[in-house]
Design a protein that fits this description.
The complex is a heterodimer of chains A (about 290) and B (about 650). Helix content of chain A is about 35%, strand content about 20%. By secondary structure, chain A is α+β, with helices and mostly antiparallel strands. The model of chain B has no long low-confidence stretch (mean pLDDT about 95). Classes of the chains: A alpha+beta (about 290), B mainly alpha (about 650).
């Protein structure tokens, strides 16, 4: 139900987004959503910016006025009220103002938080993501292919990322597609994203995990459904499967080039979170301390 | 092991590859030469006794306050140099000012030093300098414990600060999340330094919390009910209670990590089903109240500075106290907002998002109350007031972006990005640092007896504040461009270059501001402008009824408080002679004796910590025994107080013109 108020909000939001896009180039990845998740998050960003912007302006104006009017300079005609300590209406007002602002931000926050927790599809594309030092491994359990440091996804279809780590904590972030989720050892966390336009979007690890942390990036390729299947097929026929040896090499602490495999060994991704380290997939350091 | 092997092993341990040659040469040798020079000076000028009696063994809160202040300024320098190194590295893409390993160490020490060894002691410096004086007390409740707090903090700070030139610096960030901070990923002793120094300094902090809690509750002058207490004393009370409940979770988190690292436990390791998230929870159950521990005193300072320099009573005293209490209560219920992205589910995230937003209400009330305090006043643009005036428009931005970060789905995009970095520097620098600097300039004459040159101080202020805006505003936009924190460098072509360049320029401006501040202090010491009145700002609270600096016993006669701004009321009602004594009414005063126990205890902690850092357990045990011995000695020591006889009090007061004839 798009009420008038909502339409107004939307219009206001779009106006601000338009302005910021005009002012800022496409480098502002958070302001250039390529999918519904990032879009929804951007709406909240814009809404909250506008609301707190009003409060900031109010305080700045009041501050400037007080500073100009009540200076201790000879001949200042402004009233001097050394014992003015209370004003009931004002005290209620300054309490009510933040309350109103917070309700205006709080309600959409609650709604969106719950909404973003639902994958809007019964058949999302599932990608199992494992973060390693300092690389990302993407496994497609249904297509049974694996890639390193890049992945393909079809436009218009939600993708469910199942995130885990066989390394220190990392956080998976593709700003154009949506916000972050941590990848943690011994746990699997879900994150769904969807691309609504074609493109190559830069993703990165946002949580510090060591010396080559800043190089731990990947590319998300959003292509048409047809191109996606063609790509999967190409990987399946042209690439070798990942061997245990390949996997162990990936576990080494290093930065690697993008790679693709037609298949991968079982047990590289936990079936259940608790089974992870039990299966002997401990981290193997390469350098002697 | 032969002697030869043992020495080789020791050298490798003390100087691993990440300890850089310039640090070894510059710092280790520089420090040694400097220490020898100081010792020679002290010996030649026969100042050892003076140093020992007046400073190292003192239990006087005013002197402890000064030592805290000096330590905090030194640490501000250290943390500031780290910040400049970070910004210089990020000035452009692919910069090679330093390697990634060193960069990681530098941002780790920057955060750790600034939070634990700069902001905290700065706050405690001002508590010590002002709180007992403004509540009409002769000292804090537990003077010797106060000295213990300081020395334990000081040795903790030394422990962290020697790490980069001996053994290796910690490099896992100031939050030190496992499993990266665990032995498997972070071998070497750097992380041990982090754990031990915070653990040791934390003991001192908890002791300070207890001390000021009791001081404010039990040591107030007769007549000063809680509702007549200055807001800064309120903020000390509330901060202390926060410390008391916030630091134990940190102690636990650090302790468990230490067990993992030193004794092979697996509380937070990847192997053996460790739970890194448990650390994250414990850390932020401490960490979020911690940021309020840092900001509450600043709020208290501004609530003193604004009325004085507006010549007007504080607007909405009850609301100010109420909002401090509300913030302290809410601060324990918001910690999950530091990790909305760790899969707690929408219910938990929404709860913590909304509870975080609630904090904006009492904070907003405070902002407006300061503005209304100025409304109808007469604003004097002194240096403490300038810092306050810079605080309001700056902090409101930081608070507002805090609300934006609390909007959970929006935070999914801000988290770990430069947007978040900009936010917390906006509140910690724009709030706490502006606040403690305001307080430092405000109470400086009371602490030292001379004023700081106003013109130089204004220049320092201008550079620092301008630099602040130029440094941190671009970082909000860097966050929206997808730049994350802790990147050792970045490639060109992402649009980050020019904003980073500006941010770096801003940090240089702040550095110039700091240098002017130091020049200002040295110049003003060499050309002292003595504060002969004891009340240079036309103050409102009791500390300004005393001479500057206050005598050892503070109040020759404890005042009887009748109103909220007692000194202001005395001045208005012509009762200022109330603070004077007469020859027949003067009483002898008991003050606590100096004690060598605090510094001995802290030194024992230091020795034990070094033992733990390098896993030399014989040394750790030795240090532990030292701690036990110092505590035992302290328990059985002579507690008799020193009596300053009436004649001496009379003479001291007469010299300051405070005796009724």
């Amino acid at each position: 139900m798009a009420s008038g108020r909502q339409r107004l909000m939307k219009g206001l939001g779009l106006a601000v987004v338009g302005l910021s896009i005009a002012g800022c180039g496409s480098d502002y990845v958070v302001l250039h959503p390529a999918g519904p998740v990032a879009q929804s998050e951007l709406h909240l960003i814009v809404l909250s910016t506008v609301i707190v912007g009003v409060v900031i302006l109010l305080v700045w104006v009041l501050w400037a006025y007080v500073l100009l009017r009540f200076r201790d300079i000879p001949g200042n005609q402004a009233p001097y009220l050394p014992n003015w300590r209370h004003h009931r209406v004002l005290e209620i007002l300054v309490f009510a103002l933040p309350v109103v602002a917070l309700i205006a931000i709080g309600i959409p926050t609650v709604r969106k938080t719950y909404a973003l927790d639902h994958v809007p599809s019964h058949h999302p594309l599932v990608i199992d993501v494992t973060s390693l030092d300092y690389k990302w491994v993407f496994e497609y359990p249904r297509q049974h292919i694996a890639t390193v440091n890049y992945f393909y996804m079809p436009v218009g279809r939600p993708v469910l990322f199942q995130l885990t780590a066989n390394s220190p904590l990392t956080a998976f972030w593709v700003p154009n597609l949506g916000g972050m989720e941590y990848a943690m050892p011994n746990r699997v966390l879900p994150l769904w994203l969807e691309a609504t336009r074609h493109g190559v979007f830069l993703g990165r690890n946002s949580n510090f995990n060591g010396i080559d942390f800043w190089r731990m990036t990947f590319e998300a390729h959003a292509v048409s459904e047809l191109d996606f299947h063609a790509w999967v097929h190409r990987i399946q026929v042209t690439k070798p499967p990942m061997t245990h040896r390949d996997w162990r090499r990936l576990l080494h602490r290093s930065v690697t080039a993008p790679a693709a495999f037609s298949g991968y060994p079982a047990n590289t991704f936990p079936e259940r979170a608790t089974q992870f380290t039990v299966k002997g997939l401990h981290y193997i350091p390469t350098r002697e301390p | 092991m032969s002697m030869r092997e043992w020495i080789t092993h020791l050298i490798k341990l003390l100087f691993p590859p990440q300890v850089l040659l310039p640090d070894i040469v510059g710092i280790d040798i520089g420090l040694t030469v400097g220490a020898i020079a100081i010792m020679v000076y002290l010996t030649v000028r026969h100042r050892w006794g003076w140093l020992w009696r007046e400073w190292l063994t003192t239990v006087d809160h005013k002197k402890i306050g000064i030592m805290y202040l000096i330590a905090a300024l030194v640490m501000l320098f250290r943390g500031g140099v780290d910040a400049l190194m970070i910004r210089t590295q990020l000035i452009g893409p692919r910069a090679h000012f330093m390697g990634a390993q060193q960069y990681d160490e530098v941002f780790t020490t920057h955060g750790t030093v600034m939070i634990f060894f700069m902001a905290m002691p700065m706050v405690f410096a001002l508590f010590n300098a002002a709180v007992p004086l403004m509540i009409g007390a002769r000292d804090v409740a537990f003077p010797r414990l106060n000295a213990i707090s300081f020395w334990i903090f000081a040795f903790g700070a030394i422990l962290l600060n020697i790490s980069f030139s001996i053994g290796g610096s910690p490099s896992a960030g100031w939050m030190s999340y496992p499993p990266y901070s665990e032995l498997a990923y972070n071998p070497g002793v750097g992380e041990n330094y982090f754990l031990l120094s915070l653990q040791v300094a934390g003991i001192g902090t908890i002791a300070t919390g207890i001390n000021f809690l009791v001081t404010v509750l039990r040591m107030r002058a007769p007549g000063m009910s809680l509702s007549k207490m200055p807001i800064f004393a309120w903020s000390a009370l509330i901060t202390s209670s926060l410390v008391l409940f916030a630091f134990p979770p940190l102690t636990v988190a650090l302790g468990l990590t230490m067990l993992d690292r030193l004794f092979g436990a697996s509380f937070f390791t990847v192997a053996h089903q460790g739970m890194p998230m448990m650390y994250v929870n414990l850390f932020w159950i401490f960490g979020h109240p911690e940021v309020y521990i840092l900001i509450m005193p600043a709020f208290g300072i501004f609530s003193e500075v604004v009325p004085v320099f507006s010549r007007k009573a504080l607007f909405g005293y009850e609301a100010m106290v109420g909002s401090l209490l509300a913030i302290s209560f809410l601060s324990y219920g918001v910690w999950v907002h530091h990790f909305f992205e760790m899969g707690a589910g929408p219910g938990v995230n929404v709860f913590f998002g909304l509870s975080t937003m609630l904090i904006a209400i009492p904070t907003g009330v405070k902002m407006f109350n300061w503005l209304f305090t100025m409304w109808g006043g007469r604003i004097r643009l002194t240096v403490p007031m300038l810092w306050q005036l810079a605080f309001i428009p700056t902090f409101v931005v930081g608070g507002a972006t805090g609300v934006m970060l609390a909007a959970v789905p929006a935070d999914y995009q801000y988290h770990n990005s430069y947007f978040m970095i900009a936010h917390f520097h906006n509140v910690i620098v724009g709030g706490t640092v502006f606040g403690v600097l305001s307080g430092m300039y405000y109470w400086w004459p009371k602490m030292f007896g001379w004023k700081l040159n106003q013109r130089q101080a204004t220049w320092a202020f201008a550079f620092f504040v301008a630099g602040f805006w130029v440094t941190f505003m671009p970082q909000y936009f860097l966050g929206l461009e997808g730049m994350t924190r802790r990147m050792a460098t970045y490639p060109a072509g992402l649009g980050w270059t020019s904003l980073n360049w500006w941010s770096t320029m801003g940090s240089y401006l702040m550095a110039v501001g700091f240098l002017i501040m130091v020049y200002n202090i040295i110049w003003s010491r060499l050309h002292p402008d003595w504060d002969t009145t004891g009340d240079p700002w036309d103050g409102r609270t009791l500390e300004w009824s005393l001479p500057s600096p206050a005598p050892e016993y503070n109040f020759a006669r404890i005042p009887h408080v009748r109103s909220r701004d007692e000194w202001w009321a005395m001045k208005r009602e012509g009762r200022t002679d109330d603070v004077k004594i007469s020859a027949d009414s003067v009483q002898p005063i008991h003050v606590p004796r100096n004690s060598a126990m605090p510094i001995m205890l802290a030194a024992a902690f230091f020795v034990g910590s070094i033992g733990m850092v390098f896993s030399w357990f014989w040394m750790a045990i030795l240090g532990g025994l030292g701690v036990v011995a110092a505590l035992a000695y302290g328990s059985f020591a002579d507690y008799s107080e020193l009596t300053i006889d009436a004649a001496h009090v009379l003479k001291t007061e007469a010299a300051m013109g405070r005796v009724d004839s």
